[in-house]
Amino acid sequence: MNFTEFGLDPALMESIESTGYEVATPIQEQVIPKILQGRDIIACAQTGTGKTAAFLLPIIHRLLQHSNDGQVNCIVLVPTRELAIQISQNLEGLSYFTSISSIAVYGGNDGMNFATEKNALSKGVDFVVATPGRLIAHLNMGYAKLSGLQFLVLDEADRMLDMGFHDDIMKIISHLPAKRQNLLFSATMAEKIRGLARKILHEPDEVNIAISRPPEKIVQEAFVVYEPQKLPLVQYILKNTHFKMVLIFCSRKQNVKQLNRELQRARFKIAEIHSDLEQAEREDVLLNFKSGKVPILVATDILSRGIDIDNIDLVINYDVPHDGADYIHRIGRTARAESDGMAITFVSEKEQRRFADIEALLGKPVKKAMVPQELGPVPDYRAQHPGRSAQKKKRRYGPPQQRRK
Ligand code: AMP
Q: Whose CA is nearest to atom 21 of ligand 1?
């Protein structure tokens, strides 16, 4: 589903385009219309699914239609300062061409920030992205303008409960107007989350984007490389290994076409498939692939969901997929039925962060394979944990600032 179909504000659409999002992720497709309708939501979704934009976009849209001036309009409660920074940065991008204002409120920084936060909370700001403890420190002083609050988001609610924030959350809620829209996101739906939901949400719609983990029998590896090393690497792998059916994914059809051209020039038996092909052409390509006539296929994500081709023994992600869900769908094309399979992902420097998000979703790092020496030196993998890269950004650019209306 394309973002144009949600009927979002034009300035917001401009921001979405400049962020580079084109197609909504499954959670966005399900959640955005419900939030626009004003429903309370309880959603089971992990990091990497696009859940942040799933709640930010419809709230920004609603606030562009009606924001209470001089008031805090939305509070997003999160368990850690890393997540507060990350969400604030996402919000900055997604509201770039709009008049929406925001501030991150989290502990552990200096008194200067406290004064800035106090100023925003007492003068009013559209979004406050906060860790519970720090927000309570402000609420205790009584200057926060909360009577016009319209939205409350609890993100990673399961982690907040694990970290012992239950009472803080309830205390914050006691300061809020009763009539508001509540959105709760959690990676699990344990009973304690349902208990919290019963206390806070009003007739919620339940959304479940359970991502099944990839089958254990798929051997997953990643090559950390510079972008120009990807072409020689794919050639090296195709020449020096003996896989019978290889499916190579690229995110853009231009890249599919280019890679197909390059590999044809290098005399590999290969074909391409993407949305520019007519249905009959696609069927032809698939038939040739399934019959073994053309053993290598380069594809966009149109092939990653639902298409049943058994016996693919190697999937190569020539670039890192958008998110964890796409990754799992892509690599799930191998090791179907009884057969085993391997999934290899090429990770360039600028894709490291996205790959770390996927690893976080998988719950463990993917083994990094040795790049053949003849390809020359390779970059280090620096993005072990999404939280770390968020912190690095903060050091370089400073904390997210409140933008004036
Ligand atoms: P999240 O699950 O919110 O942590 O998002 C995971 C990553 O996906 C972030 O880097 C987002 O910027 C990115 N993302 C979210 N929605 C989309 C989309 N519709 N298209 C492409 N990337 C997205």
A: 21
Q: Which residues line ligand 1 (CB under 6 A)?
A: 21, 23-25, 28, 47-53, 322-323, 357
The answer to whether the predicted template modeling score (pTM) of the entire model surpasses 0.90 is: no
Domain match, 195 and 254 both: no
Task: Round to whole Å and give the CA distance between 361 and 48.
Answer: 6
Average of per-residue pLDDT across 3-15: 96
Cα(115)–Cα(177) distance, integer angstroms = 25
How many folded domains does the chain comprise? 2
φ, ψ (nearest 5 deg) of residue 361: -65, -40
Q: What percent of the chain has pLDDT over 70?
A: 90
pLDDT at 393: 35
Tell me the CATH number at 104: 3.40.50.300
Q: Which of 21, 28, 32 to mutate to test the pocket of ligand 1 (most atoms within 8 A of CB)?
A: 21
Are both 243 and 341 inside the same structural domain? yes
CA of 265 to the centre of ligand 1 (A): 35
> Whose CA is closest to atom 10 on ligand 1?
354
Based on the domain organization, do 148 and 243 belong to the same domain?
no
Instruction: Examine residue 401 and state whether it is found in any structural domain, yes or no.
Output: no
Cα 268 to ligand 1 centroid, rounded to whole Å: 35
Contact 393, 85 (CB under 8 A): yes
Is 392 within the bounds of a domain?
A: no
Q: What is the domain extent for residue 27? A: 3-208
Token pair of 234 as six digits: 């794919």
Please give the Cα distance from 297 to 307 (Å, whole number). 14
Report the atom number in ligand 1 closest to the C-alpha of 357.
6
